[in-house]
Amino acid sequence: MPRYLIRRLGQAVLVVAGVIVLTFAIMRLVPGDPAVAYAGPKATAAELADARRRFGLDDPLPVQLWNYVRDLLGGDWGTSLHTRQPVRDDLFQAFPASLELVGAALIIALVAGIPLGIAAARYKGRLPDLSVRLSSMLAVSVPVFWLALALQTVFASGLGWFPVAGEYDASLDRTSPLHLYTNITAVDALITGNWPILTSTLAHLVLPALVIAAYPAGVVAQMTRAALIEESSRDHARLERALGFGETAVLTRFALRPALNPVLSLIALVFAYSIVNGFLVEAVFNWPGLGRYAADSIRSLDTPAIAGVTLLVAVLYVVANLAVDLLQGVVDPRVRAR
Amino acid sequence: MTAPALTTFRRTPLRHLAGVDRLAVAGGVLLGIVVLAALLAPWIAPYPDDGGSATHPLEALLPPSGAHWFGTDQVGRDVLSRVLFGARTSLLIAVAVLAISGVAGVGLGVVAGYAGGWARDVIMRVTDIFLAFPALLLSLALAVVLQPSVTTVIVAIAVTWWPWYARLTASVAASVATRGFVDSARCLGVPAPLIVLRHVLPNSLTPVLVQLSLDGGGVILTAAALSYLGLGAHEPTSEWGLMVQQGQSLFTTDWWVVTFPGLAILVTAFSFNVLGEGLRARLSR
């Protein structure tokens, strides 16, 4: 195990280093001069030169890269041009909101996708199977921004069942202010017993979380179905049938546990994808997460902020991958040998 | 799925289709319709000029009717015509992205798989780095620094898409390279580039081709998302994601402006996904 651990960690570090270099390269392609964006259109030549010096834009590229890496490792992720705050602080504020949204979505995806996958496998080739396959295909094919707009128009603006936008009713900040511990509103409201904000947050979560859940739910249902069908054709399933267990019992009591292994590792990989998919949904529902921050940054050509978001999500993805591999290495010794 | 015995019994085209999953057939038919719509758009669109910059302010935001099946948009253009022309943009992007990333990915992958050793290690680590960025994220970053256009969308998505094919091809090519006919070619003194081109490459292509058809839907969705964010196609190009973005504030009052382009994205992505799944199921049997 230690050798596998070291090799896998080494790979992850190498990838993160590459991610940093690639992000830097992309950001250096920016056509607009970041110094102009910072100093404003009316800046004098002296102010511009000052801004260029501040951002180190006069240095040769390798020096700039070196400074960039040094600052990143030292915890300085640059200063956002539009919020004028350290990017790290901005990300620290926005990320928990995205995490809350995607976490809720993944819970919905598992709760809906696994039973649907079981039902499809149980009635393979018949109506329930066909309808689950059809709907899961639709779920992975739907453009999220459009689904978000449609649900918002019908269930929020139209029927008024859910709030239209935001994370919770802002007027509650006055009547029952929230104490922050984790920065994840729903969790903080729960552990401090702040029921008004908790119920408001949950009501605001429903629609955007459902939209983000569509893709992972479809993938989970398909994977569960495929894994169950494969698992239920193995010898142990034949033995269980011979012992008199019904088909449903064979699937849910015996085949489900080994079949869920790949499904759960899939969830970790879908996580980063869902965060980025969530960008579009956050824009529609005005959710104060990374997506809205990214959208604002794109609009103002805010290079350090875009670089920060890109880096954060890429590193998250590497970490999620690493976690899956290491967990599988613990569970299944064959993985380590590869 | 019908019994395989039946399919071998009579190999008429219809029998052949019966062995294929019904969903996959539906996907193929749907995709065929979309492709036809794209090819024939200038002739079948009721108002071909509306696919471009024509405006009819007096006919703005008419609801669906006999004259305008999908209604008209905020400047009076026929939505059906724009949806038909939008199929051209979306399919063009999908084909271009899959072609560029397919060629780049397969090329690097086959070299990595055949050569092995440090060449494989270097190429695989580079793909790892690109794969760490979810496709939409890296495209987003790239689309921000390049000027928004259809070309930008193609470049941005292709840059994030090729590593999948490189990985897939490398693993297949590595196993092909150990087969007997490759060894014998090597013993006969066939130069390595020729072995790769003539023997390893053709025998490594099938899984990549299936993957390409599976990925069409993903490319279409990513491209539509970029255009929706204002980083892709712009006026007066007919593009589905852009149409949704331009009409989104009208959704409550004039639902048709947003509904039909969104449905077009859904149907196209769906047909790619279903067809790809069906092909994969058939080839993995």
From TrEMBL, chain A:
Superkingdom in the source lineage: Bacteria
Keyword Glycoprotein part of the UniProt annotation: no
Pfam families: BPD_transp_1, BPD_transp_1_N
GO terms, molecular function: dipeptide transmembrane transporter activity
An example Gene Ontology CC term for this record: plasma membrane
Predominant location category: membrane
Subcellular localization(s) per the UniProt record: Cell membrane
Assigned protein family: Belongs to the binding-protein-dependent transport system permease family.
Protein name: ABC transporter permease
Automatic annotation (TrEMBL), chain B:
Pfam family, one: BPD_transp_1
Residues in ABC transmembrane type-1 domain copies: 87-276
Primary localisation category: membrane
Topology with respect to the bilayer: Multi-pass membrane protein
Segments passing through the bilayer: 23-45, 91-117, 129-162, 255-275
Top-rank taxon: Bacteria
GO cellular component terms, A-Z: plasma membrane
UniProt keyword annotations, A-Z: Cell membrane, Membrane, Transmembrane, Transmembrane helix, Transport
Cellular compartment(s): Cell membrane
GO biological process: transmembrane transport
Family: Belongs to the binding-protein-dependent transport system permease family.
Protein name: ABC transporter permease
